[in-house]
Amino acid sequence: MRTNHPQISNKIHTTIESSEFLSRHRLKPTYFKRKRKLPFPTLILSFLNMMQCSARTELERLFQTLSSDEISFESITTSAFTQARAKFSEQAFVELNQDCILAPFYSHSDYKKWNGFRLLSVDGSLLELPPESALYKAYGKLNPQARLPGARLSQLYDPLNQLTLEKLRGQVFHLDLIQNQSLTAQFTLLSGLFI
Predict the structure, then answer these.
(1) Which has more pLDDT, 168 or 195?
(2) Alpha-carbon distance 123 to 159, whole Å?
(3) Could you tell me if 153 and 122 are in contact, meaning their C-beta atoms sit under 8 angstroms apart?
(4) Are strands 163-171 and 150-158 parallel, antiparallel or unpaired?
(5) Where are the alpha helices (DSSP H) in 67-132?
(6) Residue 20 — very low, low, confident or very high, per pLDDT cuts 50/70/90?
(7) Exposed (0-12), middle (13-18) or buried (19+): which is 72, by Cβ within 10 Å?
(8) Is the pLDDT confidence value at 1 over 60?
(9) What is the pLDDT of residue 42?
(10) CA-CA distances (angstroms) from residue 62 to 4, 19, 87, 98?
(11) How far apart are CA 160 and CA 168, in angstroms?
(12) Percentage of residues in the chain with pLDDT exceeding 70?
């Protein structure tokens, strides 16, 4: 995570090191109990470090940044990294974004505004998913003639401060209907957070 806000960095590190955070987001109580080569906080940091390359390259960069004598980069395989990622919920990132980034950032009035107002935008995309029965059941198809399941992704974004407030994913039934449902959900979120 690259940030110029020490309060945000400290809050992230304190949160990901806490046993309560781990308990809330590991998928089974037995996950991340033993001391591993790739501990939970290091795994979370690797994803917060904005992965843009292969997992192997990102792991190398992370371990160069951490420069930890306790963990040997060469001993972590890409497979071990992928398996470790499958052991915690993506809701960990939602919590970190809401509690450790957005709340501290917007608690100060020195963030960028447009004509005195917070500028927000919504963007959405359609995504084709692999042809798996669980995905057909969860998301449906992009249209009745489609062969693959599909989902709608949408994002509520603060373009001036370059922050994502919320990401939503959902079924695609009728384009106008799902857009309205996504917008309603995003504005419901806003009403409770900042406006």
Answers:
(1) 168
(2) 11
(3) no
(4) antiparallel
(5) 78-85, 91-95, 103-106
(6) very high
(7) exposed
(8) no
(9) 84
(10) 18, 22, 20, 24
(11) 21
(12) 72
Tell me the C-alpha to C-alpha distance, in Å, between residue 77 and each of 25, 43, 61, 103: 23, 13, 14, 36
Encoded tokens for 92: 């960990």
Query: What are the pLDDT digits (tens) for 42-86?
Result: 888 878 875 666 777 777 776 666 655 555 556 677 788 788 888
Q: How far apart are CA 103 and CA 149, in angstroms?
A: 35
C-alpha 107/C-alpha 115 separation (Å) is: 19
Token pair of 3 as six digits: 């940030």
Instruction: For residues 160 and 31, give the distance between their C-alpha atoms in angstroms, rounded to a whole number.
Output: 39
CA–chain centroid gap for 136, Å, is 23
Asked if residue 95 has pLDDT above 90, the reply is yes
Query: What are the backbone angles phi and psi of residue 141, rounded to the nearest 5°?
Result: -110, 160
